[in-house]
Design goal:
Strand content of chain A: 15-25%
Distance between the termini of chain A: 64 Å
Number of domains of chain A: 1
Number of strands of chain A: 13
Order of helices and strands of chain A: HEHHEEHEHHHHEEEEEHHHEEEE
Shape of chain A: globular
Structural class of chain A: alpha+beta
Oligomer: homodimer
CATH class of chain A: Alpha Beta
Largest sheet of chain A: 8 strands, mixed
Number of helices of chain A: 11
CATH superfamily of chain A: (Glycosyl)asparaginase
Strand order of the largest sheet of chain A: 4-3-2-6-5-1-12-13
Chain lengths: 340, 340
């Protein structure tokens, strides 16, 4: 009888272990959507972008493979993209009209619906860690400006001199944008001209994002951005707004957006995809495609998103020429793409 | 034959006029939800609150009655509440930890899905007019801090010295809050104690809001707040966030929220009610009650909202002891209430 008891315990133990470790995981990332054309890309530059995406996938995959959480995986992937000057987030952030770098980020836990976000921070090396700190260590969801920086510093985030964010490429982008803006201002009401969206969205803005399903069935989403080149008036886009640029709910999906932020705010993009799944029983791909391919351009916007659902299905939907994107699954399937 | 033509034209003209003027309109407003008990209210104070709500209803009703738009009506109603020091918005704004007044507001047009918001502004007499200016005169949706103030000043909003927002009542509230916070800090980790939500939500925060359906079938929503007493770290609540505190879509409804902002952000409250109507075909009251009476307290939050749908049905749902609220309809029906 005792022998059977031991066997039973061993079988239970194996079953629990197998239930935990056999469960699938998925990580999907993006590095921004826009006018990304193969014709204007050099093979060297393409290689660098793909390597940057691969590094982010590796960071997140290592965590998920070893039984880590979706939340830790998306944060780790975003940190790699923030530290890579190719992407408009963290080190590669674009410049505001005043020649500053103002960063936004947000993160959400699909299990608890807890969320954290920072807007307009200038000295936090990895804004996504500040967003995570807001979520984990405060009862707030969103902090902004100097207040957010004070909180981040008091809660273990790496603080850098704002000059850390300087890159020659982004500075030249600002000079180009200003030149273009002042030329247009000659022909139009100057306030309006300076507020208009760019003709070439690509060099003006970008975002990085990550969504994941871990082996425990938990979803998480995170987004980080350096904002819009030449932006003024303390403009806040969709990236730090829960429901617009970022959303995660274990009952439906995790979503991270990139594109013309104002339209993503007006459509409350990320939450609407979750709601279409919950209330209209649409599948993830149909919900995302309807919003990105139909509703978004119908309103006049463009961009894309990545999303993963509670069953591990994922989608990378965009209506622009390209979107830097990649994914990795627990079964080893992986891919990195740039163009349509 | 000519006589008939004239008659036909006259009938057409009357039909058009009747189609325009016979159509119903509705305006609903709130002045915040919280621990509002009849037992702690004096008859004099109650009269003042009711008069404040009546003034706001009158301002919006005059516009709607004369064929004005829902957008103008909600802005006008909010301006009256912002100018009334009884309500935590505009002149009655609460103080931050640093002894400042930082105001947030947002507005949305259900016809175009255009929206505008300002966060953390300190010198704009009526933040709702700044939110309206962001919507009407820029291609952005959300502006914050000094940038938003600069934009508002350049676009005709009345700028005041920050001392305009000083009221003895709110200053004493801050002193009380600080005393309570420092007492709690003795017993807990100080950072956490200062970040925790208040035991008595009522004196800590409040919001004003308005939603309307005009006689052309257009919906609009607007929300304005002075934030949370003793708030730190540039905290942004749900009021300036499109989808959380404010949403309007002619296909569904217009919503303005009040309460513990963090929970409204995490639930993306206003947009979810719209989505429940659009995708789950729920009626307005069921959608609002499910979110406010079930989902919100289940997550740990509290508060309320006002909403009107495209057919003129409206609801004023809350799970607190009271919510300052009122409505007026084109048929003359009107009401003002405070308690449950």
């Amino acid at each position: 009888m005792k022998k059977y008891s031991i066997l039973f315990v061993l079988i239970c133990f194996a079953a629990i272990l197998s239930a935990q470790t056999n469960k699938k995981y998925v990580l999907v990332i993006h590095g921004g959507a826009g006018t990304i054309l193969q014709s204007t890309m050099t093979p060297e530059k393409e290689k660098l972008y793909k390597q940057g995406l691969q590094n982010a996938l590796n960071a997140g995959n290592t965590i998920l493979k070893n039984g880590g959480t979706a939340l830790n995986a998306v944060e780790a992937a975003i940190k790699v993209l923030e530290d890579d000057s190719l992407f408009n987030a963290g080190k590669g952030a674009v410049f505001t009209n005043e020649g500053k770098n103002e960063l936004d980020a947000s993160i959400m836990d699909g299990k608890t619906l807890k969320a954290g976000a920072v807007a307009g921070v200038t000295n936090i090396r990895n804004p996504i860690t500040a967003a995570r700190a807001v979520m984990d260590k405060s009862e707030h969801v969103m902090m902004s400006g100097k207040g957010a920086e004070l909180f981040a510093a008091a809660n273990g985030c790496t603080i850098v001199d704002p000059s850390y964010f300087f890159t020659t490429q982004r500075w030249n982008d600002l000079l180009d944008a200003k030149k273009e803006d002042s030329l247009k201002a000659l022909h139009k009401d100057s306030t309006k001209a300076l507020l208009r969206q760019p003709d070439n969205h690509d060099y003006k803005y970008g975002t990085v994002g990550a969504v994941a399903l871990d082996m425990y069935g938990n979803l998480a989403a995170a987004t980080s951005t350096g904002g819009m080149t030449d932006k003024r008036y303390g403009r806040i886009g969709d990236s730090p707004i829960i429901g617009a640029g970022t959303y995660a709910d274990n009952n439906t999906c995790a979503v991270s957006c990139t594109g013309w932020g104002e339209y993503f705010i007006r459509l409350v993009m990320a939450k609407t995809i979750s709601d279409k799944m919950e209330f209209a029983h649409e599948n993830l791909k149909d919900a995302a495609d309807d919003m990105i391919i139909k509703k978004l351009p119908a309103l006049g916007g463009d961009g894309g998103l990545i999303a993963v659902d509670k069953d591990g299905n994922f989608t990378m939907s965009f209506d622009t020429d390209g979107m830097y994107r990649g994914y990795v699954k627990s079964n080893g399937e992986t891919g990195i793409e740039i163009y349509k």
